[in-house]
Amino acid sequence: MLQNHRYQKQVTEMINGISRIKWWKYRYVLFVALVVNVFVINRFFFDQSISDLNPFGSPTTDENLESTTPSTPEKTSNGAKTPVVAAEKTKETMTLNLHDYDFNGKYVGWPLERVCKETKWTPGLVYVCDNNSGGIGNIRNFILTCVRYAIESGSSGLIIPRIQRRSEEDHANLFTTGMQPLSYFFDEAHFRGAMADNCPQMTIFDTINDVPNHQNITKMEEFYPKDLNNPDGCDERGYNRHLDHFRVRFDKWLVSTRRTPSEAKPVSVRFRWATFFEWPIYRDGPEFAATFGDLLRINPDIENIARAVLREFSKFAGVEPKDSKLDVPYLGVHLRTESDALGFWPDFSVQSEGYLKEAESRKLKHAYLACGNATDGHRFGEIAHERLGINTTSKLDLLKDQELQALTDLTWDQQALVDYLVLSKSTHFTGCSFSSFTMNIAFKRHTMTDGLHTRQWKSPGDEFTTLVGRFDNWFGDWMFMYECMWP
Ligand SMILES: *[C@@H]1O[C@H](CO)[C@@H](O)[C@H](O)[C@H]1NC(C)=O
Ligand SMILES: *[C@@H]1O[C@H](CO)[C@@H](O)[C@H](O)[C@H]1NC(C)=O
Ligand SMILES: *[C@@H]1O[C@H](CO)[C@@H](O)[C@H](O)[C@H]1NC(C)=O
Ligand SMILES: *[C@@H]1O[C@H](CO)[C@@H](O)[C@H](O)[C@H]1NC(C)=O
User: Fold this and answer.
1) How far, in Å, CA of 414 to CA of 431, rounded?
2) 12 backbone dihedrals φ, ψ, rounded to 5°
């Protein structure tokens, strides 16, 4: 698919548009932009006999996540629970919990509310956040980056974000199949509710035609925030060191280009493709960094399928599933060796050795595997079984009948969300350091380390996750995935 000249040309043109330097400097970007998150899950055949009840004990790492001390604003504290251990640190209930079927935890909106209150709002300014592409890791960051810029710009309107669907036949073709609603991946009601409750200064419109006086709208397409930067010795590819000047420059630029928005004459802003992984999340403080991404939760119907997978996985591992308690120790594996993986990414043996090392040291005897390469998936399962007696399975093997039908009715990218959720609940999660899909799961789980006070992720991992493989040269000086991905 990379040989496909059409896409290469298309992306080359975009990259040339993005900066004035030669596109070959971004050859890796070109490749990766096409393939990030490309994976599909294949069938595995393992006997699903039920062995003794959970002989492996329960993980102890996440027992205390619900404890809280009421030292932060009332809104976020559940106040009532007694800390299990003497907790000097506050661990807010917003965090994920590995022992239930809830993929989100409590929504904490006050950091967003605070940022929205600090903002000076401009009537008639509207952001359009739809020029995204790819899988969950990229789409999620694009929308969040766009909404964050919209807030910074004082945009009093937002068109409900949409998602560009990629082709089912050709997964490298990210652009041609048209726009899907936000609910294609996400919980739209939650997004609207959380925005209305915490950022009511920004009105959400269904379409651009719902903006008052839309007949008079001035459309700015292909906006690129870094174009407003003062290079100050660097070029515009550089790290966005001037976010503190962004609003000032943005307002000046609107005036100087005769685009001052007003209710009578609105102005809409749409990003150039691939404006993402460029807002350093810790700039807004740890509370905002830990919670902003929770605006985008996975679609509840897809969550239900993931719950069904977890229940079946529990049986597979010999633990009779309980209604609300998830009590099955397993290794989550995202093996990323599809044929589009790049030469400098960790290969099968580096990845599988890394994953098995974690399974062994943590004494995990069952693995949930997400992998688009059937041959390598089997290979991993066999090695894991031979060497460590680990039984491996995947979602398509676990589900039956209507539940399987519900899964296979989804598109390829939607099916990947089921893995995203199931892996997020694993006792220990392992994946390839180059995948934004993997990183996003890792960072979400990382919030379990200290709730709202969580410190920045440090590779290769924490008590919940291990990323395998070095991450040294990927996006050069364009994207900063580890700094700029909200959990
Ligand atoms: C793995 O599966 C095999 C074959 O079904 C079974 O005999 C064995 O007990 C299973 N091992 C574990 C750890 O569940
Ligand atoms: C659009 O602008 C024109 C003149 O600039 C004005 O006459 C008209 O009333 C405006 N329409 C709306 C819907 O605001
Ligand atoms: C997305 O951005 C690209 C590159 O800037 C542009 O060519 C394209 O028209 C945009 N697509 C949409 C739907 O706005
Ligand atoms: C599976 O991975 C191997 C290398 O690990 C690669 O040679 C092969 O092309 C891949 N197959 C698919 C279908 O991605």
Assistant:
1) 19
2) -60, -45
How far apart are alpha carbons 485 and 444 in whole angstroms?
10
Q: How far apart are the CA of 387 and the centre of ligand 1, in A?
A: 13
Domain end: 295, 325, 349, which one?
295
Q: Is residue 462 part of a domain?
A: no
In a domain, 284, yes or no: yes
209 lines ligand 2 (CB under 6 A): no
Report the atom number in ligand 1 closest to the C-alpha of 317.
14
Distance 235 CA to ligand 4 centre (A): 38
**Cα dihedral sign for 234, 9, 139, 393?**
negative
If asked whether residues 151 and 188 sit together in one domain, one would say yes
pLDDT single digits (tens) 392-431: 999 999 999 999 999 999 998 999 999 999 999 999 999 9
Measured from the CB, is residue 386 less than 6 Å from ligand 1?
Answer: no
Q: What confidence score (pLDDT) does residue 85 get?
A: 40
Predicted TM-score (pTM) of the model is 0.82
Number of domains in the chain: 3
Q: How far is the CA of 251 from the centre of ligand 2 (A)?
A: 23
Instruction: Please give the single-letter amino acid code of residue 224.
Output: Y
Q: Are 286 and 321 in a shared domain? A: no
Give me the domain span that covers residue 48. 25-54
Q: Is 318 in the pocket of ligand 1 (CB under 6 A)?
A: yes
Atom of ligand 2 nearest to the CA of 213: 13
Question: Apex CA 97: angle with CA 96 and CA 98, to 5°?
Answer: 120
264 alpha carbon – ligand 2 mean position (Å): 7
Q: How many other C-beta atoms lie within 10 A of the C-beta of residue 233?
A: 6
